[in-house]
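User:
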Amino acid sequence: MPVLVITGTGTEIGKTVTTAAVAAAALAAGRSVAVLKAAQTGVGPDERGDADEVARLAGPVTAGELARFPEPLAPGTAARRAGMAPVHPHEVAERAAKLATEHDLVLVEGAGGLLVRFDAAGGTLADAAKLLGAPVLVVAQAGLGTLNVTELTARELRRRGLEPAGVVIGSWPAAPDLATRCNVADLPEVAATPLLGALPAGAGALSPTEFRAAAPTWLSPRLDGTWDAEAFRVREAP
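Assistant: Predicted structure:
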């Protein structure tokens, strides 16, 4: 799995922190890691972006982004409003493929969900994943409403001939309600792909040392971690 594309079922669901956890677990396993943010929106030229945050939390990764746009909008819209050249899927794929020749693992983090548009032609992260032939990890919300969008994302991946690598819950609350606890069993069923981890709410606020030590415990062995999906399901079952 030299390239892993990471998408979310929406915004603000823990995609960047999940990317950092995957990177930290891979580094702890002795792998070299690069992180590529396909398109960064909502930050200025001198502000820290998502790739920088991954590096801060995870450790010594090669961090980069293809472009950044100042307004917090879909990349295609943000590029158009800023009068800047958009990012195209083939550019994402080319940069990731080059990084893959130099690293054991390349993590490509999208912006928002799978079908958020990069350019006027309708290019998306899914198109970049298709060009790369890379599996796609889906970061999902924990609570009510997540089943529909997670299933739709997994279905769209398969419709395009892409492999869902699994689902990770981006932010697991300290006191989950009934719907959230039921979703532990339902998410892998509706997505027809394994649950590969659950990050505790607030994980991104940990110190880098604490984050790196804990990251493998949030992720399954398929992501270089020690998290046990069945034990988690039994513990959280309503």
